[in-house]
Amino acid sequence: MKNLLHLLPLFLYLPVGLVSFSMAAKSLHSRSFIPFHRQAAQRTLTSLEPPLQSVTLALMRVSGLGFLVVGLLLTIFPVVNYFRPHKFAQLAIPAVCLVYCAGLSVANYSLHKQTKAATPWKAALAAAVMIAAGMVAAGL
After folding, report:
1. Among 59, 93, 109, 127, which has the highest number of CB atoms less than 10 A from its own CB?
2. pLDDT tens digits, 56-65
3. Please, which pLDDT band fits residue 75 given cuts at 50, 70 and 90?
């Protein structure tokens, strides 16, 4: 039973990591607004002035890099930690991902409240909850 509990963080982190890779690809390779960005802005990216388009795309790339880091940490770390456990890393590494996902949820919720756009704030909150649950399971 103890061995199964050690696998629980992996099963909680892995889906968040895989979705993060998907969002990283979307953000890093995008040349237009993500649909909820378009809904919030009530315009297309190409309707903005070129300098503002460049700033927006740069911010999307930064967001994509954050998703990439979360994806890498949540897919590689649990496997490594299973074979070479380290108590500090069991909590510190997922905590970094938790900060990103919680912050993402707050930012997307704020955008939703201001614009009524269908932002994925609930999905980001679910990811944060899954990470927190994995951290609790890792601490057992």
Report:
1. 127
2. 999 999 999 9
3. very high
Nearest-10 crossing angle of helices 87-115, 121-139? 160
Whole-model pTM? Answer: 0.91
How many helices (H) does the chain have, and how many strands (E)?
A: 5, 0
Tell me the two tokens of residue 36.
């909820």
Q: How many Å apart are CA 107 and CA 60, to the nearest integer? A: 14
Domain encompassing residue 118: 2-139
Name the one residue in this structure whose structure tokens are 């954050």. Answer: 66
